[in-house]
């Protein structure tokens, strides 16, 4: 399983854009990059997933350079409710029993 | 969207008793479910992979006789913490992958079970 490295914490203010970069130097050819959000005492919630270039949905964008050794989650115009832990996971579900291992995650704190 | 339901959300038990936690996929079938444990201010740690109709696969360091996993159907997996002790107090989370979705579909997580052993 590809190991990931993220900043431990990031602080931001309401209305700002937050960019979290994740390093995954040993990502495999079939691996996808998935980001989850977790609030205290809740299970992780899927945010976005990508393989290469750029993916955008209604809550975030994911930028993946050509070498795929890193990825950046971009949260536009954050609000207080975006305060959470964000996890970057890399894995290849080509096997029926593929499993995801969580790294330390990035604690994002949004202030008013 | 796909929903994974965990029950109970909170449980308090006495040391030495057993506790069962259920994980259900409500609107999809899951041949594989995963069980995680999370201590305060720490990340999720994968405990075991639950496979429908076969034995669970445990991660290194996780006692299979203490954490019994049963995956009897495509929508239900249970985790039983046997002879619980205070050090087993933690947040237990399950996740499941939709059998009918494409191979790269993301996992769906339950909302967790807070276990407190007194």
What value does the Rg of chain A take, in angstroms? 14 Å
Which chains share the greatest interface?
A-B, 23 and 28 residues
User: Helical segment tally of chain B?
Assistant: 0
Number of helices of chain A: 0
**In terms of quaternary structure, what is this?**
heterodimer
Question: Roughly what fraction of the amino acids of chain A lie in strands?
Answer: over 45%
Helical amount among residues of chain A, as a percent range? under 10%
Question: Describe the biggest sheet of chain A?
Answer: 5 strands, mixed
Strands of the widest sheet of chain A, in order across it, are 1-9-8-3-4
Most strands sheet of chain B: 7 strands, mixed
| Termini Cα gap of chain B | 37 Å
Order of helices and strands of chain B: EEEEEEEEEEE
Query: What is the residue-averaged pLDDT of chain A?
Result: 91
Radius of gyration based on Cα positions of chain B = 14 Å
Helix content of chain B: under 10%
What is the mean pLDDT of chain B? 92
Which residues of chain A sit in consecutive blocks of at least 5 with pLDDT less than 50? none
Query: What global shape of chain A is seen?
Result: globular
């Amino acid at each position: 399983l590809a190991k990931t490295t993220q900043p431990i914490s990031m602080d931001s203010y309401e209305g700002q854009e937050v960019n979290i970069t994740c390093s995954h130097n040993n990502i495999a050819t079939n691996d996808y990059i998935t980001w989850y959000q977790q609030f205290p005492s809740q299970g992780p919630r899927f945010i976005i997933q990508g393989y290469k270039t750029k993916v955008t949905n209604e809550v975030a964008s994911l930028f993946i350079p050509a070498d795929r050794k890193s990825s950046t989650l971009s949260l536009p115009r954050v609000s207080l409710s975006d305060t959470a832990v964000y996890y970057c996971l890399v894995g290849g579900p080509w096997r029926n029993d593929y499993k995801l291992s969580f790294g330390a995650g990035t604690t994002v704190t949004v202030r008013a | 969207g796909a929903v994974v339901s965990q029950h109970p959300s909170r449980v308090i038990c006495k040391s030495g008793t057993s506790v069962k936690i259920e994980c259900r996929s409500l609107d999809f079938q899951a041949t594989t479910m995963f069980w995680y444990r999370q201590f305060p201010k720490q990340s999720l740690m994968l405990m075991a992979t639950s496979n429908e109709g076969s034995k669970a696969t445990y991660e290194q360091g996780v006692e299979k006789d203490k954490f019994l996993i049963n995956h009897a159907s495509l929508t239900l997996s249970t985790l039983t913490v046997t002879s619980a002790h205070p050090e087993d107090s933690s947040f237990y989370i399950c996740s499941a992958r939709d059998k009918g979705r494409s191979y790269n579909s993301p996992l769906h997580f339950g909302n967790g079970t807070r276990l407190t052993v007194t």
